[in-house]
Design a protein that fits this description.
heterodimer; A: about 160 residues; Chemotaxis protein chec; 5 helices; 7 strands; globular; B: about 130 residues; alpha/beta
């Protein structure tokens, strides 16, 4: 999957806003607790998971770019259940719902970040979701969401 | 109180399910709840029925939310209350739907208490 350039200097200053966007969407949408984690903790969290998904949403407007989310399938299923208020014991969410939710996660984080940092009109493309080989994504922002790894990359084209 | 008939328009099926769930949690009596994947499908639904409240996303393929709302401006009785639900909460985006008879503009993710508040106000407006 191709991606735009990495964060430029002015965007790095706004990376705290990315943490805020991730935490807001996780807490408000999924009742999930999210905390940034370092490399060692990230490796430990990843070791429990072998099936990963990645969603990407591109945006266009006063600046262009893309936001990508990578997370284990287990977390995506957990988020669907929380998002839809599914009861314990219900059948696990279907694969299309899991894929859809993974795309919406990127969509909501991207929308929140753009709203809070830019305040101008952007067009977001339909999210693209695919399987990912593993949790190795150097340079991405890394979080523990309910104790499960979640990585986010925000890449923008130079202004 | 007469149940509210609703239409949810979003290209994401999981988002439509979430909106439906928050509606069901609101404890406001609901009648028929229709779903559509874009503005064109919504117009197809509205060609055969009227609804009390329309919830629409903005960014959708085929026909966007603003295009749908613009199309409905010729038919003010088809929908009695219009609600936008979007990931984009910017003032600039909100300004785009000014003049399209939008009653509420909500941001995703949507909190159940916000939905309850909106549906209660729609019910009050319609039923007194």
């Amino acid at each position: 999957m191709s991606c735009p350039k990495s964060l430029n200097a002015s965007m790095v200053e706004e990376s705290g806003q990315l943490d805020e966007a991730v935490a807001f969407v996780a807490e408000e949408g999924f009742f999930a607790s999210v905390e940034p984690v370092g490399q060692v903790e990230w490796e430990e969290l990843c070791s429990d998971h072998d099936t990963w998904l990645e969603s990407s949403v591109r945006f266009h407007g006063p600046l262009g770019g893309a936001l990508r989310c990578r997370l284990p399938l287990a977390l995506a299923r957990e988020l669907v259940s929380a998002f839809l208020g599914m009861e314990t014991g219900e059948l696990p969410p279907s694969d299309p719902l899991v894929q859809d939710l993974t795309g919406e996660l990127a969509n909501m984080v991207c929308g929140r970040w753009l709203t809070r940092t830019q305040g101008e009109v952007f067009d977001l493309e339909h999210p693209v979701v695919a399987t990912a080989p593993d949790g190795q994504c150097p340079g991405w922002s890394r979080y523990a969401a309910n104790g499960v790894p979640l990585a986010i990359e925000l890449a923008v084209e130079a202004r | 109180m007469k149940p509210l008939n609703c239409l949810i328009v979003d290209d994401s099926s999981v988002m439509r399910k979430m909106v439906r769930r928050t509606m069901e949690l609101s404890e406001v009596p609901l009648g028929q709840v229709h779903e559509a994947g874009n503005g064109r499908e919504a117009l197809d639904v509205l060609a055969t029925t009227t609804v009390d409240v329309l919830f629409t996303d903005i960014n959708m393929p085929v026909m966007t939310g603003p295009e749908l709302l613009r199309a409905l401006s010729d038919n003010p009785t088809a929908v009695r209350a219009r609600v936008v639900i979007s990931t984009d909460g910017s003032e600039a985006r909100r300004a785009e739907v000014v003049g399209l008879n939008v009653d509420w503009y909500l941001e995703k993710p949507l909190r159940p208490e916000v939905m309850r508040d909106v549906l209660s106000k729609v019910a009050e407006r319609i039923h007194g």
